[in-house]
Amino acid sequence: MQKNKITARISPSPNPLPNYFPRKPVILGENHINLSYKKKLDFPLPGSLVTYFPVGFGWKMSRVWYFIYLLLVGHLCSVLCVEGLGVNWGTMATHELPPKSVVQMMKDNGIQKVKLFDANQTTMSALSGSGIEVMVAIPNDQLAVMSNYKRAKEWVRSNVTRYNVKGGVNIKFVAVGNEPFLNSYNNSFLNVTFPALQNIQNALNEAGVGDSIKATLPLNADVYNSPVDNPVPSAGRFRSDINGLMTQIAQFLNQNKAPFTVNIYPFLSLYGNDDFPLDYAFFDGVSNPIVDNGIQYTNVFDANFDTLVSALRAAGFGDMTILVGEVGWPTDGDKNANINYAYRFYNGLLQRLAANRGTPLRPGYIEVYLFGLIDEDAKSIAPGNFERHWGIFRYDGQPKYSIDSSGQGQNKYLVPAQNVQYLPKQWCMFNPNAKDVSKLADSIDYACTFADCTALGYGSSCNGLDANGNASYAFNMYFQVQNQVDLSCNFQGLAVVTTQNISQGNCNFTIQIVTSSSSSSSLGPSLVALAFLTLVGFLLL
């Protein structure tokens, strides 16, 4: 029935070529759970563990082979990994891996650069002495403060120069905000972003590190576009409402020899738009390429990137360095967010990067940061249910699919995080003997408010569960996010604890990891407050 259908909210398209393929709202199926509400705390992606050693090997033998494997991988990555490959390390998770384990995991996989979204002291301490190049960040909510030069100097002193010592953190960039000019922000950061950028770079210069550490501004690809009557890359220009501001920013970055940083998401071109040609989101060719002045564009990444190149040329900065701050593919939360597509996208991208092909207007090396490193189950799902599933690793540091970081297209798995501790092997499921199910819908809604149920959405990995399965999934996610506390698996008799793995097919019923005091406190007072409110709400249910 029409009244039972739900129209999902679509964020503004970040594509520079929106005129090629009009976007449509997504209609969720009639029987699927409504995940359109806003949630602050939530959960990770299902997936399967990867077996790395022959079954016949005992643990001692497996451990020996593992260390040999690490040595070989470390050696090969030092010479064969894609040049300068970076990753985004976000920490919006209810249960974080210990930062030192994450840093070791990056080193084991030859990852040479990392982009952060803050300058958290625990994270920075873990990166100290690692040699990994780091981009620290100033969140958008601090941009107004950074427009005061005194405060900008204090921030640089506390978050940059204090680590700029021998054996410290190898900081190369400071990201001033993150996509602050998105249309959805309604100009909230329009007047404070550029002053903050200027102040941070000037503070770096004054501190004597401005030659080696540059301030940059990660921007969404919606800051440039092509006109409706000529929607091709060569016609790229900065968005008309911010053209003057973008020209000033580009000029300042260019003067300070800092890169123009852009986030490009081919997935979002496909998301919610059934008219977008699927193959154009990937790198393995299309039957009908876009032709622009004799240049054939066979994928949206090249077209997007070259639209920016054209916009910079039009502004007078055609030779300016461009850094891709974020690019990736999610693995759940949408019909096009899955492991097969993520594998196809990343392996195509890495082969191009390894060959230094660049784009038609910018051949050669491109510095790229993959998005992201680990799934983040506490991210906002305002842009879409896929937001919590961008990681190339699961929440527990297990690789989701094979990625050949050398770009040679080989069937290789990344090295997982080591010594991960899990909560006991028990799950929370719907009680088949429950007598009163009148509050079942309310209980599921409550569980999904405080835990991540995005895998239950249309086209997602757990979309095929029946009604009881949906309830079990929601109850278990809540149970795990509450660290398996007994009271968190009751729901007035609707739920019961089981030691039998109730995962079904591709739908994984998670066992959460044990967090250290540092990782569990990383969300700060908000997590403590939410846990308290959750307990009170549960008791009142």
Kindly report the CATH topology of the domain at 85-115 and 217-393: TIM Barrel
Strand order in space, largest sheet: 7-6-5-4-3-15-14-11-8
Task: Please report the number of helical segments.
Answer: 14
Largest sheet: 9 strands, parallel
Helix coverage percent of residues? Answer: 25-40%
Q: What structural class should be given to the helix and strand makeup?
A: alpha/beta
Number of strands: 17
Q: Outline the low-pLDDT stretches.
A: 1-80, 517-541
- What assembly state would you assign to the polypeptide chains in this entry? single chain
Broad shape: globular
pLDDT averaged over residues: 85
Distance between the termini: 31 Å
CATH architecture of the domain at 85-115 and 217-393: Alpha-Beta Barrel
The percent range for strand residues is 5-15%
Summarize the structure.
This protein has 541 residues and is α/β, with parallel strands linked by helices. It is 30% helix and 11% strand.
Describe, in plain words, how this protein is organized in 3D.
- Its main location: membrane.
- The chain crosses the membrane at residues 66-89.
- It catalyses: Hydrolysis of (1->3)-beta-D-glucosidic linkages in (1->3)-beta-D-glucans.
- Residues 426-509 form the X8 domain.
- The protein has 541 residues and is of the alpha/beta class.
- Among the domains are: 85-115 and 217-393, Glycosidases (TIM Barrel, Alpha-Beta Barrel); 427-516, no CATH class.
- The chain has helices at 59-80, 99-108, 121-127, 143-146, 149-159, 193-206, 243-255, 266-270, 300-315, 339-354, 440-450, 467-481, 517-520, 525-540; strands at residues 6-8, 26-28, 86-88, 113-115, 133-138, 170-176, 214-216, 219-220, 224-225, 237-238, 260-263, 290-292, 295-297, 322-327, 367-370, 427-430, 495-498.
- The strands form five sheets. A nine-stranded parallel sheet has the order 7-6-5-4-3-15-14-11-8.
- Helix 5 packs across helix 6 and helix 11 (440-450) packs across helix 12 (467-481).
- It starts with 5 loop residues before the first strand and ends with a helix.
- Residues 1-80 and 517-541 have low confidence and may be disordered.
